[in-house]
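Quick check before the chapter quiz. The format below is the same one you will see on the exam, so make sure you can read both the input and the output lines.
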Amino acid sequence: MRLWDWAVTAYARQPVADACLNLQDAHGQNVPYLLWAAWMAEEGREADLAAAARLMRAWDAEIGAPLRGVRRALKPPRPPVDEAAKEALREAVKAVELRGERVLLESLEALAGPPGAPLPVLEGLRAAAEASGDPPRRAALENLAAALDVKSP
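Here is the expected output.
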């Protein structure tokens, strides 16, 4: 399965979204990168994790985090700015942010080798987090791995 389709399906499950946002907000992790790592493990794919981590860090610093910051800054009321106009701008930024996440996922997918024997998702998440140079607490990764392991009905 293509990474974007897999990530959209996985993230739609509430425990996955909650675990991802916890890793992003409480541990400074990049959600698309972690989803890529989980997909890689499930697919049994290999890649140069150091190169993927460099790509992710540069993208997040220059594009992902700034877009997320603008979107979040537009969330509260900002009188005297018209609320409807502000919300329309926020939705536009949100769409651009999502498109940016897709570009990052597609770029990471291009680094992946062919499918092979699946690995435990937690193992893939831990390896990617270590390659990023700033691994979160193991419990947070275990939470995401468990959420991803829950199959949709």
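If your answer matched, good. The chain has one domain: 3-149.
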